[in-house]
Amino acid sequence: MPQTITDRRQALTAAACGFGQLALAGLLPQTAPAALPGPAPQPHFAPRAKRVIFLFMQGGPSQVDTFDYKPLLPRKHGQSLAFDDARTIAKTGKRGSSQLVKKPLWKFRQYGESGRWVSDLFPEIGRHADQLCMLHSMHTEGIAHGPATLFLHCGSTNLVRPSMGSWVHYGLGSENDNLPGFVSICPSPGNGGARNYDNAFLPPVYRGTTLGSAGRPATEARIRDLVNPRYQPAQQRQQFALLQSINAAQLASQTSDVKLESVISSFELAWRMQRNAPSVLDLTRETESTLQLYGIDQKETQNFGHQCLMARRMCEAGVRYIQVTYGDSTANPAWDQHSNLPKHADHARAVDRPIAGLLKDLKQRGLLEDTLVWWGAEFGRTPYAQDKGTGRDHNPDGFTAWLAGGGVKPGIAVGATDELGHVAVENKIHMHDLHATILHLLGIDHRRLTYRYSGRDFRLTDVHGRVVREIL
After folding, report:
1. Tell me, what's the pLDDT at 54?
2. What pairing do the DSSP bridges indicate for beta strands 394-395 and 416-417?
């Protein structure tokens, strides 16, 4: 008789079927949630942070109008100077295009013992300057919103890759098996859309769970059908037990079915979420003073305040990676002011108090020590004018992001752009470097966080990235 040879892939495939049955076995008694099969993922070394809250400012705030103080800009205002503009080079191949320098529209002030410069757009955040770690030398890939946004979230401008939240969830698992490990609050449907919180080729369990959508009220950001008012809990348990027994029979009838395994896993999590998520999402449990802290009592800050407070509650409940988007419709990414730079003031008013409230709330609850808060966008904006002097163009060559908590040095600034704030020139930090550093703070070696797909090992930082140790 011919010898039966089982290779590694076949063995794992068959084992996967068994894992699904283990999950079912744990669910059917209905006495306690089933443990995930196999050991929980472990960090590569002692982490400084346990979780991340990413505050995504969609569209690209102007660094020279927010956090990157350049005293030379007002003196050069209106002068025609040559710039190596990324967009012009991409379109024409020509360098040294002549552009009119544009001064900041808002004054800068120094805050705290650190003396960090922050513009009048962000007075509330400025009061937390001694907690912030400024990264003034960011640069990235992509000159348009779509590619740059994908690169920010996935480390690639065009290929379908897992999002950062999915990589973090894959590498560390969840702190709370009764909630998703990765949540995206009010994500934008444009500029990559679902790919910015997708699992790509990672197992489906690592895909981000979405709450709401950019451009819609955050009060509508909820999980659909989380509560079933039509049936009593006992009836729902009977329904779920029947469904799972059917799934078990289906699994037993075949060697493997990855899609069915994923469905069973999602049903398992959904069942546990029905018992746990409603209380996490219920902001009526918060005090009036907390709602005021986030600006939920004011019309202009209510929406983003709602998002930031949800982020804190999920952080407190053990969600590993929380992505919070300040965005708008597909056609108008929020901070994208090519022809109306004063509009930055509206966006700043909407987010300044909620972000400051989040930082204060996390600190007073003892959560900021092991929660990394990341503020940033897909790119910055040019120090010269666009559209007859009324706005600024995209700038991937030099912009600012900041971090707080989670093991970073507070009250410092790392890197610098040139004297006009156009190009990163000192201690340059690529987006791959920022990804590598955030993973390092979580206890993950970005070079070792890999997944084999289609015959090769993939990672978030591809073959690039360095840890920015100056901020640790």
Report:
1. 98
2. unpaired
Indicate the SS3 state at residue 91: helix
Average pLDDT estimate for 122-139? 98
In CATH terms, the fold of domain 48-57+101-223+264-471 is Alkaline Phosphatase, subunit A (3.40.720)
- pLDDT tens per residue, range 400-453: 999 999 999 999 999 999 999 999 999 999 999 999 999 999 999 999 999 999
Residue 452, SS3 per DSSP: strand
Instruction: State the SS3 of 419-442.
Output: CCCCCEEECCEEHHHHHHHHHHHC
**Angstrom distance (rounded) from CA 345 to CA 334:** 11
Q: Give residue for tokens 């559209």.
A: 387
How far apart, in whole angstroms, are the C-alpha atoms of residue 134 and residue 118?
A: 11
Euclidean distance between CA atoms 422 and 382, whole angstroms: 6
Q: What is the DSSP string of 347-382?
A: HHHHHHHHHHHHHHHHHHTT-GGGEEEEEE-S-EE-
Q: In the prediction, which pLDDT does 387 show?
A: 73
Q: What is the 3-state secondary structure (H, E, C) of 305-341?
A: HHHHHHHHHHHHHCCCEEEEEECCCCCCCCCCCCCCH
Comparing 60-69, 84-93, 348-357, the range with the smallest average pLDDT is: 84-93
**Which sign, positive or negative, has the C-alpha torsion 132, 138, 140, 142?**
positive
- In angstroms, the CA 264 to CA 21 distance is 9
Residue 324, pLDDT > 70, answer yes
What is the phi-psi region of residue 124: left when phi exceeds 0, alpha when psi lies from -120 to 50, beta otherwise?
alpha
DSSP state of 197: G
| Cα distance between residue 177 and residue 173, in whole Å | 9
Position 7 pLDDT exceeds 90: no
Q: Is 323 left (phi over 0), alpha (psi -120 to 50) or beta?
A: beta
Q: If 0-12 CB within 10 Å is exposed, 13-18 middle and 19+ buried, where does residue 12 land?
A: exposed
- The helix (H) or strand (E) run that includes residue 209 is strand 209-211
Q: What are the residues whose beta carbons fall under 8 Å from the beta carbon of 21, sequence distance 6 or more?
A: 248, 251, 252
* Single-letter amino acid code for the residue at 69: Y
| pLDDT tens digit sequence for 26-65 | 443 332 233 344 467 899 999 999 999 999 999 999 999 9
247 versus 367: the higher-pLDDT residue is 367
Pairing type for strands 182-185 and 321-326 reads parallel
